Amino acid sequence: MATKKKLRVGVLFGGRSGEHEVSLRSARSILAAIDRKKYDVVELGITKEGRWLQGARAQKLLGAASKGEVAAAVSSQSLISAASNPGTPTGLDVVFPVLHGTFGEDGTIQGLFELADIAYVGSGVLGSAAGMDKDAMKRLFLAAGLPITPHVTLLRSEWRTDPRKCTRTIEKALRYPLFVKPANLGSSVGISKVKSRADLAAAMDEAASFDRKIVIEQGVGGPGVKPRELEVAVLGNDVPEASVVGEIVPAKEFYDYEAKYELSGPDESVSIIPAKLTKAEEKAIRAMAVQAFRACDCAGLARVDFLLAPRTDGGKGNEILLNEINTLPGFTSISMYPKLWQASGLNYSALINRLIELAVERHKEKQQTRFEK
């Protein structure tokens, strides 16, 4: 009996975004855990300057050879030609992009995969772009009737032309404390908590250095209230499922880049899985996570983040607000997305398998679409 051909999977990492190092961490974990008996694995790296590397040179970008069988160096053909010839020694059947942030989870690389007609893990062009752009994301959440934090969106050009007018616009719509964020960036890069007008200009300048659109959100719960930060992992294509709910207790005032990736030991942020919630709260949050996934037309995987705080409208109980969706969350073995599925009964290696299966499934479904008359 003929042996079943192994799928050739390209793990793509690095990239030009500010999350380059986070991407390398995720890729190292995936390359160490992926089932080499089931897949032929090709390392594909992108330097901070945007240069593409394959095989041994890509492994060098990781800083060390991955565990397990080391893939042979691949000829320097393009991804397009590799994708177009999956049956050849250097061809690819599936790409697993582990590119966090700009040019990786914003729809740009997904457009390349679509042009190449190759299966790939994660959301498509629309879902990736919507999940990356916090302004567009919030518009889709509102259209789906999902509760979100009050916010204002301004352009970098508006802020630099007339900062006083922008300040008036912000203060008319929102109250302090505020969170100022670049619309298109991840891992909490460029985000500032603003407690008064005195801190606003510096926060706006910081966010404007990372993106042309700036999202200003009202703090949840009001002054002196620290909302609980909850996260749910979603997995699937047309019939997505939600994991158990987890909670992050930030080491700092909020869960910024340093709290996520740089603090350790007693200063490290703590994750609680499952989060301590009422059954009603857990059910509502998991249902909202799936709704958010569908609202942004996501596929494969996403982590959906929530804020929970006592109601400010005089009502009893807590208010649950949808914060954002992340279509390519951190994917180290100790990142929240894999940990939430581990707690839900799906281990790290099995999760990688499932994501590759979903990529192939979605690509096959796409073949049912006609592109000509």
Q: Order of strands across the biggest sheet? A: 3-2-1-4-5
Number of strands: 14
Shape designation: globular
What portion of residues belong to β-strands?
A: 15-25%
| Main pleated sheet | 5 strands, mixed
The Cα radius of gyration reads: 21 Å
Structural class: alpha+beta
**Separation, N- and C-terminal Cα atoms:** 42 Å
Whole-number mean pLDDT: 88
**SSE ordering:** EHEEHHEHEHHEHHEEHEEEHEHEEHH
User: Count of helical segments?
Assistant: 13
Q: Which regions contain 5 or more consecutive residues with pLDDT less than 50? A: 65-76, 255-266
Helical residue percent band? 25-40%
Features of the shown structure:
373 residues; alpha+beta; five-stranded antiparallel beta sheet; 13 helices; 14 strands; 35% helix; globular
Task: Walk me through what this model shows.
- With 373 residues, this protein is an alpha+beta fold.
- 35% of the residues lie in helices and 23% in strands.
- Helix 4 (108-116) links the parallel strand 4 (94-97) and strand 5.
